[in-house]
Amino acid sequence: MDADKAKTSKTRKTIGTIVNVIIWIFIAFSVVVTILAITANTSKDGVPSIGGKVMSPVLSNSMAPTFYKGDMIFSNKITDESKKNLDVMDIVTFKADLDGNGTKEINTHRIIEVIGSGDAVSYRTKGDNGATADSYTISYADVISVANLGAKTVDVKEANQGKLSKGTIFTADVDKDGNNEYYLIKEVKKENGSVVAYVTRSILTNDDDVEVSVTEVKGKLSEKISRAAGLGSVVTFLTSSTGFLLCIVIPLVIFFLFEIVMFIKRILEIKNANKKQITVEEEELIKKRAIEEYIRSQQGTAEPNEGEAGAAEEKAEEAEAEAEEAKPEAEAEAAAEEPAEAETAEKTEA
After folding, report:
1. What is the Cα 196 distance to its own chain's centre?
2. What pLDDT score was predicted for residue 320?
3. How many helices (H) and strands (E) does the chain have?
4. Is 0.70 topped by the overall pTM?
5. Domains of the chain
């Protein structure tokens, strides 16, 4: 029995520890989401940022396959001076009036053209998955951060020209004038098991799909983009009014109420620690005796206790002794009555 109780107690303790860990992880997550919501609402750019990292949820597939709708992009915040010196192929998060309603929204696209310089510089952008450039240009002041900071183009050796994969961006000299163009591989074409060409989309122009021979490949774009698949959709919902209320505020209120109840319970346990506690077995025995006593009282067959039994025996003995003492007197009276009865009988006969 003791072994079973110890095992049960250990199991409950383990479960309690696991639950507490999960609860505190949730609290930590809630704190992070709260910080993101506050920074997004208080930031002049309208996006959450922590430690120089800007977190931008991806709202469409305009940049696929570089990243996809629902992803969270972690880009680098840059100074105003750096915003004036961005280059073609940089992926930037910026503010622009996307739908023409007069309000600027957040977007992340790739720079395909630099217009002007210095304080008058502006940029034209385009999504990697789009066939045409964006209809607007953005001022350097509208740039918030750069997602592929430090991107560069590396040469591709002849032996590796046919080893590129779908989604890779490479450069090629297709106009024979020495001007390299950037292309995104959409399909790899093979003949007799060997790669002979790539079906591509032009990154910098509005050209239709272009087939590029492997021998025309010159370089490959090397860029590192920090992203978390699917996290953008989650954070977007959690930082909304409805999501924040349902998933953060209400659970936290329930948690703190639970902790208050447990705290009060613990105080009562400490307060009553020195008082005798009735065990389950004792409580059941008390109930059983009460039921038996009630049944006896209803049936009128309750057994006398020891004191009552002793008193009854004493009364019986006294009654017996009195009967013995009265016996001789009764016999004497009977003997005296016999002559009188005989005399009466004789008179009656005469």
Report:
1. 50
2. 55
3. 7, 15
4. no
5. 43-150 (2.10.109.10), 152-222 (2.30.30)
